[in-house]
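Let's do one together. I've listed all components of the complex below, 672 residues spread over two lines.
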Amino acid sequence: MDLALQLLFTGIGIGAVYALVALGFVLIFRATNVVNFAQGEFSMVAAYLMVVFAVDLGWPYWLSFLLSLAGMALLGAIFNLGVYYPLRHRTFLPVIIATIGASILLANSVLAIYGPQPQVLEGWFETPGIQLGPVYLDSQYLLIIAVTILLVAFNYWFFEHTMIGKKLQATSQDKEMASLLGISVSTMIMITFIYSAVLGGLAGILVAPVLFVSIQMGSTIALKAFAATIIGGFGDVTGAIIGGLSLGIIETFGAAYISVPYKDAFAFLVLVLFLVFRPQGIFGERVAEKA
Amino acid sequence: MKLTRRDFTAGLAAGMTAPYLIGSARAQGATIKIGMCAPVTGPAAEAGKYATGGAKLAVEAINKAGGVLGKQIELIIEDDQTTNPGIVLAFSKLAAQPDIVGFLGSIRSTQVHAMAPDVMKLGKPVMFGGTDPNLTKLGNPWLFRFRPNDSYSGRVIADYGVKTLGKKKWAVLHSTDAFGTAGGKALTEALGKLEAPPVLDQGYANQSQDFTPVVLAIKQSGADILGSYFTFENDLGIFARQLRQLGVNIPWVGSPSIVNVTALKLAGPALYGTYGVADYAEDSSEGSKAFGKAYRDAFKVAPDNQSSWPYDAVTVLAAAINKAGSTDPQKIREAIIATKKFPGAEGEYNFDDKGDGLHGYNIVRNDKGNIVFDKHIEFND
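Okay, and this is what the predicted structure of the assembly comes out as:
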């Protein structure tokens, strides 16, 4: 039982990270109908920005955090203008290929600038964690879980109760109709890219103290996050969260009770099962029709 | 004098080919060329910088001392991009140059496996640093290893844990790649011989984000000592932190990655008090100390096994060519195999007929982040 509780906690913690990155995938998919394969690299770039500001320059953690997120917002905007915008009238395939190209460019640029050695980024808290009975709660994972809960609440409020959120929804549902109603579609898409880059960046910064900062960190998380979005239902915000959390729990329990080396295989086995038996995911009926 | 058509053609041919013939004769005569496949780009680019630095340092020292067979050595480096196809391509580029007399391969076993068939076809000596024991059991006479192989590291980890630390309930943890699997197997075999078969033999996939299930398995196994073969420092760092967080504080003896600079930086206090086997330990011999000083003077960073094995490889190869008195591959091979009691940076080289130069390992201890040499364990069989 103690073992199961410990596994559940870490499973939820790592699953929350997948969920945060998955949210970025979903938002861009809803707005543009394309999968942004550079979403994982956004996490990696943000973690490196934190290292530059907080470790190399020694600036205060909160300032470094804000600057890194601002940097991600800028990157999201550049990404929209440089990668998506020129290809927006093409089919989804060239855009997807462009995002893969951009992800390779981002990874190699960071490699060229910073070198291949992984970096250490300290966590937000002095105490690494707390022992609660038989379960050890890592403070960074607690923070990640808390931020994920807050973001889910924020997303709900933002998309359902604010004008800009409703405009974003309208754009994602029908661009032409939204345009006819006087909504600036390109502005809405720009906002989506900026928000997704910030979300991906947030995930990267939060997870960096646990996984360290490395060039590969983005691609490993993004792969799982991508699986999470398919499990949850591509294009569904709640689905991304549920998908991410389930994936984290499944792989942690699978590793503990079945086989450690096949840990990643469990995630993808579940993905294949979903693709075969419920391709629209847990929540994604409407988007499946659209795709 | 009448110029016939035949004279004209012959003159033209001679005139056209002469510069090439003279140039090629001069090229063949001027230097002794050694080719090196190194990760100039890719994930191991940083390590590649150390490796080429070590090789260049040896070339400089040899050239200063008069070179080889009275000629200067020239090092030709090709980028292996840290990939298997990359090293095959890099080696083929070097192999196409007939005046290269010997080569340096990789520190990565999987890459040496990838290039091994081409090495066999070419039939010229190749020095390498990969530690998979199978590499020198391939029956390839042209491969020479400049680090102790993992059958020795496994025996040293087992020997030290059982005899010095007095522990018999082992948990063995290893990566599931070629290096980790071979290392884990060697350690398990060595423990079996010491009548301490592991209570847990656990593999993990590289680039894991979470080691909780592994740590809990170790905890549940009741092991009182841990032996490990980690391939990547990132994995080692995540595991070390989680191991300590979840309250496992048993002694831990790891493969060389546990004491390298990156692992120490990433894991910090989580690795304090652990032991590691290290092929290069600065205080282990006079040769190691001398290399350490020369390397620090030249590059202003601490030396490690990434730079020490290429240094030794170039030094031993040069000495072998001198001894052979020729650049004939077969004669160089015989001279390398005959190399005994050669004091290198990594240790004393005594080559066997399989191509293994070193037969022992150093045990070092992490004393609050400082790596302290403890002892050297050498095997004669």
